[in-house]
Amino acid sequence: MITKKRKPKAMQAIGTSSLPDIVFMLLIFFMVTTTIRETNKKVVIKLPEATESAKLERKDLASHIYVGAPIKGEQAKYGTEVRIQLNDSFRSVTDIRDFVAAERENMNEADRPFMTVSIRADINTRMGIITDIKQELRRCSALKIMYAARKPQVIE
Amino acid sequence: MARSVNEINSGSTADIAFIILVFFLMVSNMDSVGGLQRLLPPMPDENQKVEQQKVNRRNILVVKINEQDQLYAGGDYIDITMLKDKAKEFLVNPNDNESLPEKENKEIEGFGLYPVSKGVISLQNTRGTSYDTYIKVQNELVKAVNEIRDEFSMEHYGRKYIALDEDRQKIVRQIIPQNISEAEPLDLKAKKR
Fold first, then answer.
1. Distance separating alpha carbons of residues B61 and B144, to the nearest angstrom
2. How many independent structural domains does chain B possess?
3. Is B35's CB within 8 Å of A146's CB?
4. What pLDDT digit, counting tens, does each position of A76-112 carry?
5. Least trusted range by pLDDT, from A7-16, A120-129, B16-25, B130-139
6. By the CB < 8 Å criterion, does B181 face chain A?
7. pLDDT higher for B33 or B132?
8. What part of A 113-132 touches B (C-beta under 8 Å)?
9. Is B23 on the interface with A (CB under 8 A)?
10. Residue among A51, A131, A144 minimizing CB distance to B39
11. Can you give the pTM of this predicted structure?
């Protein structure tokens, strides 16, 4: 009983005045390190691993082409065959031309030559569809490409 | 002075910031944009007569991957683990072997004359090749080039390629170019167009 009486006096509230600052710090950290997801992925993609995978210096110059089998929810409509996703919908190879043109249009004039098309393809894709994409990209002279790949986790 | 101005209640700032934080956590993705960068060759002009580029046989290392993901490089079927060394030997050609690529003395700005290899690695695949294998092969080839660059940098600058400054990296890139050509797949023309 005695201790219970004494305790409230000794207890001091932890100062919460710096809490907003801490949270703001966290917020700013997340804002800086992340990119906003623009597209909803409708295909399942497990990227291949490559030890020499290099980071792109400027993320804003990359346009993404997703290649893979549709996710579960879309399979009833689109089947399980490997498909191409541009922006938010399934497209065919011939639509890449418009996609590249639109992406170019969105960029600064100065940045356009440095546009990189990143091909994010699933590990189980066959090269046939990738080749078609590459040929189409060559035709619309988007020559800088990148095969998206993960860096494998190093186990030491 | 009469009564001081009422302070704005700042107790809820933390909550507001938390809400924004949660919002950013949800809409953002952490996966980094990384991969193997490549430059595609420009599409040949259709009106132009296709002129077979005369490249000396010894200057090309043909790497083929077939439908069964088997790797064929420089004359025989090899395992993927051997590809890197093969590519390195091809690109460096330390003993000036007759059957390996020739070198051309080039004036490199900021470095001087250096015998730059004229070797080109030509990567060919079929439509049935799996993407996984293709990336693995690409990775091995890039690794070969990167290792040669590292060796060169260590020898001349005492540091790895990645640790060099921009100008020196450019010099190294010129001395050891990444000549990997992605030819059109062999059966593309037969099937299409």
1. 13
2. 1
3. yes
4. 888 888 888 888 888 888 888 899 998 888 888 888 8
5. A7-16
6. no
7. B132
8. 116, 118, 121-128, 130-131
9. no
10. A144
11. 0.75
The Cα–Cα gap between B177 and B171 comes to 10
- Is B48's Cβ below 8 Å from some Cβ in A? no
pLDDT at A30: 78
Q: CA-nearest residue of chain A to B129?
A: A127
Q: Does A13 lie at the interface with B, CB-CB under 8 angstroms?
A: no
Give dist(CA A145, CA A96) in Å, integer.
13
Cα separation values, B45 from B41, B72, B182, B185, Å: 12, 30, 18, 18
Report how many Cβ contacts below 8 Å link chain A to chain B: 148
What value of ipTM does the predicted structure carry?
Answer: 0.73
Range of the domain at B68: 57-191
Question: How far is A40 from chain B, CA to nearest CA, in Å?
Answer: 11
Examine residue B98 and state whether it is found in any structural domain, yes or no: yes
**Which regions of chain A carry the CATH code 3.30.420.270?**
43-147
In a domain? residue B75:
yes
Residue B114, burial from CB neighbour count under 10 angstroms (0-12, 13-18, 19+): middle
Given CATH 3.30.420.270, say whether it is the number of domain A43-147: yes
SS3 B34: strand
Kindly compute the dihedral angle of the four CA atoms of residues A135, A138, A140, A145, in this order, to the nearest 10 degrees. 110
**pLDDT given at position A76:** 82
Q: What is the pLDDT of residues B143-176, one digit of tens each?
A: 999 999 999 898 888 888 888 888 888 888 888 8
